[in-house]
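Need tokens for this chain, all 878 residues.
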Amino acid sequence: MQDWNNKLKQQWQAAGLPAVEFPATELKKIYQSSPWAAEKLQQRPDWLTQLYPGFKTARPPRVEHLQQLVTNSDLDTGLRQFRNQEMLRIIWRDQLAGAELGEVLADLSTLAEICLQFALDSLRQDLTLKHGIPQTAKDEGAEFVILAMGKLGGKELNLSSDIDIIFVHSGRGKTTGNSQGRGIITNEQFFNRLAQRLIKSLAQIQSEGFVFRADTRLRPHGQAGPLVPTKRALLQYYQREGRDWERYALIKARPVAGSLQLGDEILQQLRPFIYRRYLDYGAIESLREMHQLMRQETEHNKKNQLDLKRGRGGIREAEFFVQSYQLLRGGRQAQLQGSNFLASLKALTEAELITTTEASSLTSAYSLLRQVENRLQALHDQQTHHLPENLADQQSLCVATGYPDWPKLIQAVTQQQELIAGLFNSLFSQTEAIENQPQERYLAFIQANWQNAGIEVTSTEASAMQALLQQLIKAPMSKRAEERYQRLLKKLLLQEPVRKISAAVWLDLIKLILAVKRRSAYLALLVEHPTALDRLLTLFDRSSWLAEETTRYPALLDDLIDPKVNHPASAEETRAALKRIQQYSHNQETSLENFNQLKRAAQLSIAIAELSGELSSRQAQQHLSQLAECLLQASLEVVSTAVEDRHGELAGLQWAVVAYGSLGAQEMNYTSDLDLVFLYQLETQAPSPEAPRPNGKKSLTTEQYVSRIGQRLIAFLSTLSPAGRLYSVDSRLRPNGNSGTLVSNMEAFSNYQHQQAWLWERQALSRARAVCGSPQLCASFSKTRIQILAKSSIPEAELRQQIVTMREKMRHQIAAKTSYQKLKQDPGGLVDIEFLAQYGVLAVAQPELLQHTDTIGQLQALQQCGFLGNRDAEQLTQ
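Here are the structure tokens for all 878 residues:
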């Protein structure tokens, strides 16, 4: 070391640098911790003086530096010198300058990207001079992109890592030829030669070493497939033949060189393949197999126990833990569609899929293993993950990592691997073995021998179950779907002690199985998650409506595995979730479907909480009303943005949505429609209502503009999507009903209510409430509403008679058939109580009474003002 140190000191002095600033201590550690770095400084001592200023500050690799090195030599030499100098700088900053892990991994990834792009540009230029420009059949320039996978795709490259890449070009055609019109070749030939030369330029070992080893085996068909497939061929392969492990690999895909726009287009089109629309438990068997193979590999090869990547609790298991969640849930939660490990781990925490404690522990464990991995590879610039067995390398690694001795380092690594292994093991429950003895119950079930199957049924139920069971047995379905439903039935029938499942629930379960036979991944979900299955049985037992909803929209099953499913979200949480949906949705249709999924999941959560007694019926109504308000506001934002994009912004426009009926009274139930009235007004400085909008693709008058928003809002709310319909909307309570304008000016609305409104319209107004839009206009409506209701022009006796007449007329017009309709419409039902409260509100018409729009609030206010006796008020409230 002394000769090495003296040689560097002489170089330092020759460069005219102060002797007191010579980094003797740092060089000693580099000599001890990285023989490769020491060797490079031995070969090129001038690099110390050239690079030392850059060791002190964080800065990413720069293409200008590479350009200078190539200019002074040639492409291959310049690439290798650039790579070695940057590797030396990164090692120094990692071990001596306290660089964070994120900086180290990002700089290594940037280094690879710069080398790929620079080499690609240089080599393509040479090929173009020889063969001309490759063009597609449409005479457009053909594009070429390099997709990075693995660590480079996640911007978390190792210190001495291979780069996993896929080459793609935009389409078939021919080159234009050189300046003499010669050398015309096909695009396939051009881009294959380009890719081959690029790999050789980066990976070939020369006097200066190599740049990066490139692994292209992740391309379609692996080594048997073309080196550079077309975009069309690549997309067709994944759509027709893509396997779950390829979806897993594509999570980290990212364009890094060439046409980044082409790369983004490819990945955008692959998103439905990578991330399924519904919670993807169809991949669970494949993930389980990958999980088991990984664990078997580590257990059978004891040598892997010292492997930072492949060992038990290694980096690969940590990545599998995170990427499994991404693969399963990324289709519904777009914020999980990231390629970086630590960023994805943060997204999992924000989505509350893992706890903050789990995320913090996994971050610490992963960071330590990656840091040790980088410093292990810094020893000899080798892609190794196995901790060294020879004493010299062990001592060097201890110096590099700051541990006093080898046992302490092993202890720290082992402790973090145990933590990762625990999380890895928790991913999948073990399938229970089915004993031969209880198997008889399943056979009895298939044969419709209900008594031996342990099921109590009436004759009517027995006939219905037998018919459904025959339908299930004869239904066309895949072998996998058949295996899944049989596993589910056995799980239900063979558990000890046998859970008493009623015949009605069995009927609903068979209907559910029939409904999801083409999406049988949901059956795998129930088998894998006993808690979800138990919740499902409880819900089906307590609510036929929930059973019907779940059968119509099986995506609700996804939410049963959420431990917080019985804790409905607050308004703030719902608004935040809707904001995320808007942020990550690519179009209005995607927003609508995701809004519907959120609504149904929220309704499920509220229903579970109500059925379990955690929410009273009144609280459930308030939660359902709160949900509707949040969805209304988000829907208004979506359609307003769409109208603005098409027609420009209407300056000074204020908008309000007024809810009547159950939403106005905050008494929504699970199937309520929305009775809505839309109001607007323009600020005084705005253009006159007749002025057309000068901006936008098409000018509209103010009335046309606001009507367009109202029409789109109703359409958005009531359109049937694959995930259902948000709400049916009734807008007939607006001034003049169906013959009136869809959206009323606030002043016109006020004049109508004061001068022309019928009594039933005043009665409806007693339950009206502005629920979203401009705060100023909402406040203006509230003030106007109280003024209108306080101005009573009907004597109380006449008012009473008209209310009674309206109620009788309604009862004759609505024939109550279902139990729900009877509860609401029959004499003594809910509507009678509502009419009593509304009559009192209109009769008393005091401002403090008129603040209330809900029935219970109105009854209590009528009690306080003496209109209702205490006993009557309490009985009506109960």
